[in-house]
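hiii, so i know i said id send this last week but things got crazy w the move. better late than never?? heres the sequnce for the chain we talked about at the cafe, plus the structure i predicted for it. fair warning i was half asleep when i ran it
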Amino acid sequence: MRFPLLAAALLACAGFASSPGALAQSRNAPNASAAPIVIKFSHVVAPDTPKGRAAERFKALAEQMSNGQVKVEVYPNSQLYRDREELEALQLGAVQMLAPSLAKFSPLGVKEFEAFDLPYIFPSKQALYAVTEGRIGRSLLRKLESKGITGLAYWDNGFKIMSANKPLLAPADFRGLRMRIQSSRVLDEQMRALGAQPLALAFSETAPALRNGVVQGTENTPSNMYTQRMHETQKHLTVSNHGYLGYAVIVNKKFWDGLPAGTRRILARAMAEATAYEKTIAQRTNDEALEAIRRAGTTTIHTLSPQQQAEWRKAMAPVYARMEERIGKDVVQAIRREASGR
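okay and structure toks below
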């Protein structure tokens, strides 16, 4: 009988019974007499964010639909692992589920996901969903299987804004600024195209780095900025919507394949409902966070005019030529066609 994870991790974390009869039964349906199957779901953001709320919704749905035969333990705010550690932990079976940002898959050799980091690649959420919910999105998730990972869904956060202790209204305003980015060659090129000095830092390290002056600015969504209190040390914020931040919900493939078929169906249904919920709250959560930042009075919020947006687009346009070969020109072109409705 094949165990779904490393044997020790399975007995401790998945809760499968050890007798041959119980294991045979567990292949097809949840075993009411067995200890619950435990899913450790680790992520790096606060609970009061789109991803954090969706993780809690998935937990509630999975436990309810399985009648308690599945227990989901959610660990937010890098409680278990930081950005650079969590994927390795998943592959080793130390956790069963993650929802990393899409740029995180590049170090695994799946560079196609870096296309989501390209500036202004998605003109709207509808254009984004045409990609993530269609053939391209499914194809990208399948590329993770050879890495021991099964992709379950795409979760949304939103379009990013810029912050610093000076107004960022024109590309020239970035010149010489040390700007925090998540680890991504595309985002590195983006900041360099603006004249900034990019520094890749884990999400958990960003707010302290802003407070201590290690970096002078950053990009992120309003919900992430607000829940990490970045606005308290950033005097200016620009609503630029220049890039997108999203996630893929993933599981350890051996763990997933080793679950009873009935349990997989239950978890897939719970994930589908949690994903639909996540999409409904993502924009609202970011809008509320931006308004909360405005009310806090610590940060001046700027909105780019159409002319300023055009200047930003022009400055960042060379990123495509520099990154197409790395990502795959065919992938970039396919996403742009799908996003534009052609």
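btw The mean pLDDT is 90. thought thatd interest u
miss u guys!!
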